[in-house]
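#dry-run=false #mode=assembly
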Amino acid sequence: MGDEIILLDFWPSMFGMRVRLALAEKGLKYEYKEEDLRNKSPLLLEMNPVHKQIPVLIHNGKPICESLIIVQYIDEVWHDKSPLLPSDPYQRAQARFWADYVDKKLYGLGRKVWSTKGEEQETAKKEFIECLKLLEGELGEKPYFGGEKIGFVDVALVTFSCWFYAYESCGNFSIEAECPKLIAWTKRCKEKESVSSSLEDPHKVHGFVMGMRKRFGIE
Amino acid sequence: MAEEVKLFRTWSSPFALRIVWALKIKGIEYETIFEDLSDKSPSLLQYNPAHKKIPVLVHSGKPIAESYVILEYIDETWKETPLLPEDPYERAMARFWAKFGDDKVLTSIVWGVFIKEGKEQEEAMVEAMKNLWFLEEELRGKKFFGGERIGFVDLALGWLANLINILEDVAGQKIVDEDKFPLLSAWMKDFANSPIIKDNWPPRVQMIAKFRALRDAKLAAAASSK
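#status=ok
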């Protein structure tokens, strides 16, 4: 009996992309359902009544919500192929810590970078770069956060990279100038088919962000 | 060689309390280092440079930070009395409810209802009630969130069992009404009185003073910004 896997998602979501990437790494077939977040489907409301958010993974009818929880679930169920978390408990704790760090810091700061102006935006830009620099330090000389292969932290962070062009354009700064090693890492990741097929086109994301700015009256 | 386990904490942090419970439930010997967050020790800053927060667990010299990361590390390293279930789907659900507890329940109660008054508080109560209702539903047919015995989600939400009463006293506002939330109320009592848990609550008088000061400060700040 085959597994039935459905992903409820929204194309520009860096959180949804994490799940697409994890599924691709494991070589899993699934049905992708695009949600209109201004008109959420009955299925989404039924599968995630608590948050009514994407991504939601539905595996043989059972929903799993929250992107990093979904990625860990995928890693545990399909543990034989391309493990994302290491086997050593301390290394696992470090991976979970840094993935959590990405969640706690980057989305909020990135959002401020594209949706605010003046001093608020300058502060957000500064903090955003500081966070990326800390992550760059954590990467060190390793090819990936996961070591020789991509791992949990790579999955958690690389999906933000297709938003970098939008952040840079709105904030008028260069991430590569500040964090060259991190950008080199994003390019290295994108050489993998699983990554390049899961990330959205940065220009398309930029267009989406411009549309959002217009809707919120930010100019 | 004895493994050295140290826990950096404060006397009142509900996040650190989770770690105390987990260590004691598993019978792990450890040393406590109390931190004054207004004067953080060089050790804390060295062990958690990213957030500079407690709790931090240091095991044989290696630091782990963030309470849920620490709990999973403890569960994977000391396998007796497991906190997380074995089944991947049940594990995902446990992680989901733990995250919901911090992101929504704690936020809506402490930073929503507790530090507000009047109409603002009424609005915050609506959100808090919605969140508590999900917990009530999740308890249906179970004694603890973990089933027959205390598990990961019970430790994650355990702060409710002690703090709610304190917040209600200070704010003069009922938050978890027994009539509205019979299962949650029963769980709060069962959890609070469980072995190990009942011996490790922070002192009530100090908690009342701390939260009274917090509420007064927040209300004053809100009033002066109007």
